[in-house]
Amino acid sequence: MLKKCPFCETYNKNFESFGFDFPILKKLNVIGGGKRENAKCPKCFSIDRERLIYLYLNQFTKIFTDSLDVLHIAPEKRLREKIELNKNINYTTADLYKNFVDINFDLCNIPLENNSFDIIICNHVLEHIVEDKKAMKELKRILKPEGIAILQVPFSRLLEKTYENKTILSEKEREIHFGQNDHVRIYGIDYLKRLENIGFIAEEFKWTEHKEFTIEDYAINEEEPIFIVKNK
Prior knowledge:
Mean pLDDT: 94
CATH superfamily: Vaccinia Virus protein VP39
CATH class: Alpha Beta
Shape: globular
Order of helices and strands: EEEHEHEHEEEHEEHEHEE
Number of helices: 6
Strand order of the largest sheet: 7-6-5-8-9-13-12
CATH topology: Rossmann fold
Radius of gyration: 17 Å
Structural class: alpha/beta
Distance between the termini: 43 Å
Number of strands: 13
Low-confidence stretches: none
Helix content: 10-25%
């Protein structure tokens, strides 16, 4: 069956593989991490987790129709291009180091006002941050009372508790323990609880519960949920 890329709108029989194949990722069956088949579009090079967020935003939010304040952290190229087409929104991009964004900041110390954004997109970032609880608190602070944040991370359903060890510092050791040289943990099924402990209302949106939308047509890993948080 042909699969469609929602960004470049081309149909392909097969998408390219993408990701790392370190043993720990296979052992723990890390969802959203590891080497994935049919992950990378051969034409526009979008990857599965980027398409995942776009499809959710397009189907289940009003980001492409309403006037909203949106923050996109470490923005993916194709997703950014789609969002920028909506001139009604006030769109801010951010990153720690990259120079193609609107503002550079440390996620643990965000130089923005309280209650600033209706939607925050933070896709596979928190696993890089040693003090992730500080980052979560900062994201909560700048999220509007009725807003939502999408906080994606790679995680394992085989881990009851998130695995982290702050003594593991070398890139080689991080590859062995966390599956990537700049990751500092592998989140477990306690990820939602970690978010709730910050004060968020957290939920896991599962594509398999929404059969009206055939996610498999877009070369998406349907095992990867959308992690959505709101302020209490």
